[in-house]
Fold these 4 entries.
Entry 1:
Amino acid sequence: MALPAPPPARVFAELIPAQAPTSVPIPVSAGRGGPPAPPGREVHVSGSAELSAGPDRARVSVRLGSRKEAAGAARSSVTRRLEYIAQSARQRGVPAEDMTVMEDFSRVENAYHMEAEVCIVFSDFGKMQDVCNLLTEKLGTSVTISPPHFYHTPEAAATLRRQVCVAAVGNTRCKAQEVCRLFGQALGKPLLIREEETKEWGGHLDSHLSTSPESLTLQERIQNATAYASCRVFAVFEIKGKENRRNKLL
């Protein structure tokens, strides 16, 4: 049986000097890295990177209500609990601007009904657990605490995109440097760096996770909110010439 044809080779480095231009070149003195390389000697490489970032914010909703025959009694019952919730959050370092209160007051048949919802945004998930545990312990069934919703701020998402691009460029430079060392050459300055592809996605894909959002654990919720990003770049570097022996030993 005939052997399969070998895959075509991919040429990604050009070490043969290009044809000299018609004009007379200006002589350049040799630096520490050896004599200057002839024009046109370049190495073309591509590199990629993939990074992930967990959510940096969590939003928790606390709902409470009261139904009384007197309007003042219904309002007072809710107000006392609202003050306790706000005080508990502030004592644990949550700024006032990260708490939003919505109130609804209505009359139902012969009684007054007041409902309120407090939305608290946490940047420290440990503090979030402390506050939720305290409210559950002290207020019990008089409040309903929703499961935390984890998400990324726009600043955190932008940081992830920037970091994955920089990591891809760094990997590309390392690859070009190793190629040059393989041939005893020194890597020069970058001539071109182009971002070719970026991808972003999120969510945990493990099959063992429950499909019901209410049954997810805290760690599973964080995993589901983790953001991923990948980047691929293409770069062209100059080949300076012979690699300095001293730098090679270092």
Note: Residues 1-35, 204-211 have pLDDT under 50 and may be disordered.
Entry 2:
Amino acid sequence: QDDGYVRLLRRQVEEVFRDNRMIAVCQYNSMPDEDVVLMRHYLRKHNIEVKFVLNEIVRPVLSQSKYKNLLPLFVARNILLVSPETKAKEMLRVLKGVPQINLLGACIDDTILSRQGVENFAKLPSLEASQGQTAGALALLPSQTSSLLQRGSVHLMALLDQHIRRLQAGETGSPAEPAPAQSLGAH
């Protein structure tokens, strides 16, 4: 019966690592139950769940997975903060107010990060903002290229117009009108 329960717990740990994009490993120091409930509430607002885990359950699962580099983090009482989304910034903000919980490291989008790595990740702009900046930069290039390509033809047209005016002025004997500075300038 105990073996069945242990297998069930290990399967749950496997599901946690399989189904979540962010898995943060934290050291858990005892704290009042009310504080635990409050911390869970604030984390749940950001779709982050708290999972209390036993090292004797987690360690065998990790040792047989691609997450085996997380094993050194599981030496004391640990909890996992998990989310199907990458909510590192929100998690760090909540943990700042809970000194009994120390972030040791995390696995975000299958990348193992130290505490400093998680903090650096949290400072990155969102994927949508980065995509918008990239799209804006890429859209600017064709318009600049088009402008550069048109500049030569506009300048050539201005020179030809000036040449035609001179030719016409030579036939009629009147002085040619000087071309406006804008038609010769940088368009």
Note: Helices lie at 2-19, 33-45, 55-63, 88-96, 115-123, 127-172, 181-184.
Entry 3:
Amino acid sequence: MTETTILFLRACLALLAMPIYLLSFLGIWKPFCRKVFFPFVLEKISGIHERKTKKQKQELFHNLSDFSRPSGELKLLEIGTGCGTNFQFYPPGCKVTCTDVNPNFQQGLLRSMSKNQHIHYEGFLVAAGEDLYQVPSGSVDAVICTFVLCSVQDVNGTLKEVLRVLRPGGAFYFLEHVVADHSSWKYFWQQIFYPTWKLVFDGCCLTREIWKNLEQAKFSEMNLKHISIALPWTPIQPHVMGYAVK
């Protein structure tokens, strides 16, 4: 009965989003989404999102400076930088290289950089998390990834690249939404929204068990905790956050 209900409600949601499904079928939606829709929507909702996650991000990034080199230099690599909402939490003087698979965020990124001149902007690389070939092995002190592992093509491949580019003793910082408990109403609604949500929001998956990928990756130390951040009117709530040391 439940599976039938889920399929029925998925179909109802798909009917509501039929123009988007049609554009996707015609090959128009994906380029439009990446170039116009997603960067616009992400920047508009970032203010609300920042208020909801500010406390958690302050807690998450409070010890970033601990991973500085003996010289005091701190090189950060951010995967899926988007509009640069994490910049405000980075230590003064750190050097940041930004990457994103979508080059159309750069306008919002530049606005964020102008507001956060306490950090040094090293450059922007158009690259997927699974293929950071432009970044030399062992070259960065910390890798940052927030609300990105939900939409990468290969979570394990991305974590493998993270371990490659980190220097020994470097850290990977993460904050990600994950699948809800399978016995909960949240999970029920995540299953209903899943196909349409993934299409509309450029590959964002609602039902990934990202903590399992992190625990299975070859980090020497893992600091991970499950938290709840309520984002109103969305099927996103359970999260994991923490950092892992190479």
Note: The chain has a mean pLDDT of 92.
Entry 4:
Amino acid sequence: AMLRLRLLTWDVKDTLLRLRQPVGESYAAEARSHGVQVRPEALSQAFREAYGAQSRRFPNYGQGQGLSSQQWWVHVVKQTFRLSGVHEDRVLTRMAEKLYQDFCSAHNWEVLPGAVETLSQCCQRGFRMGVVSNFDNRLENILSQCNLRHHFEFILTSEDAGFAKPDGRIFEKALHLGGVPPEQAAHVGDDYTRDYRAARAVGMHSFLLRAVGQDKEPEVPPEHTLPTLRHLLALIEK
């Protein structure tokens, strides 16, 4: 292979796993089970607002600001419902705790097409593998539940690392865990700034998973672009 790669690091959300349904649908179903009717679209919109505000106020799940990621998420969920007109505290607390648990299981996540065979082939070819994800500490459990955990030597979340992509320090931590220099590592992800550009900034190779019809970023050459995960090995082994 032209690229002398020894380590592959992987983003998770929308690279290996995606939500089975929009957040608003999951939240609306939970509300219904408590006798509360809220429109899924209203909840999806409210979630974007609540999540955005919380991320600006307490970046990276409140790391270093005295919050646990569970408290961080419970606030986002309650705020989502409040913005949608649900204000009864007892119900809010029950729904928030239940949804926090639900998003920790395979119940709400599905594996993207091509992920299992690609990860398996990469392992068979002897690549070391790790995860680098802006996720909270539920990720390891989610990957286990979705039967992907065994492919990886390490799972590095932004909550664990104390830094979130595109901060280069999370990638440096991954390189340290993998025990390889950056030029022998490549990162695979779906976000131009957080995945592709951030990994390259620390000297790693990078591949950008980009669904057909997504906006083309001008700076990504075709040999770094994956229409699907199944294209990865052909690009690495060219």
Note: DSSP finds eleven helices and eight strands in the chain.
